[in-house]
Amino acid sequence: MSVSEILEGQNLTHRQMGAIMIGWLVLVTVISVGLLVYTYLNYA
After folding, report:
1. DSSP sequence for 1-38
2. Where would you find the membrane-spanning parts of this chain (predicted)?
3. Which domain holds residue 24?
4. What is the pTM of this model?
5. How many domains does the chain have?
6. What Å distances lie between residue 5 and 8, 11, 12, CA to CA?
7. Could you tell me the mean pLDDT of each successive run of 10 residues in the chain, 44 residues long?
8. Which of 42, 6, 39 is nearest to 24 (CA)?
9. What are phi and psi for residue 40, nearest 5 degrees?
């Protein structure tokens, strides 16, 4: 299921929307930091 299908198929509350947004922000942050550390360790 794509994100658009989930958003269209369900009436999400503000709390659920907030949780989804926070989850995405955390995921992106972790991936970004992980890539930075990975690159640093490989090329240091």
Report:
1. --HHHHHHHS---HHHHHHHHHHHHHHHHHHHHHHHHH
2. 21-41
3. 3-43
4. 0.57
5. 1
6. 5, 11, 12
7. 66 82 97 96 87
8. 6
9. -60, -45
